[in-house]
C-alpha cells in the first residue's frame, strides 16, 4: 500500500488484464481498478474500489528514495502462496542483472508469487519492490529501487491531475527500535495479495 485511501503498488507484469482482486492478510477480498501503469519500469498502481474498504489514516513506513548500502539487511512480505510469507536477506549488489542501475540485487530465496512485494530495510521502510529473479542461480533476486518508484509516481503526477500524492512519499513514520516480530505485525496489514484476471 502506498496510500491509505486504497492505492497499491505492484509490478506491471503481475497484471494480466484490465483489473484485479486483492486480498489482505485476513483473506478479505476487494475489487480494484488499474489506475497507472509504467511498463518501462515494470510498475503499476491499483486503487481499491470496493465500498467495504476502510481507508487508513497513516502508513507506518515510507518509500526511502535514498541510497542503500551493500550488505544491508532487508526483509520481504509477500504471497508466493495464499498466506502472507516473511523472508529475509541482504543487499548483495548495488545494481541488478547485467549492471541495471534501476534495480538492486538481493540475496534472498524468492518465488514467482513474490513479484511486486515490498522490500523493507531494518527500520521497516520500503527500499524497493521485488521484480525478477535469476532463473539459473539460487537465491539471486532483483528489486526495483525505491528512487525509481518515486520517480515513476512523480511522472504520473506530472501527466495526470487526478493522480494521487502517495502518502508513503511523505510519511515520517517508521518502525525503528521495535522487534522484527512487532514490525511484521504492523506491516502485514498493508501488504495485499494481487489476483489478476
Automatic annotation (TrEMBL):
Top-rank lineage group of the source organism: Bacteria
GO molecular function, one term: serine-type endopeptidase activity
InterPro entries linked to this entry: Peptidase_S1_PA, Peptidase_S1C
GO biological process, one term: proteolysis
Protein name as it appears in the record: Trypsin-like peptidase domain-containing protein
Organism: Arachidicoccus ginsenosidivorans
Lineage of source species: Bacteria, Pseudomonadati, Bacteroidota, Chitinophagia, Chitinophagales
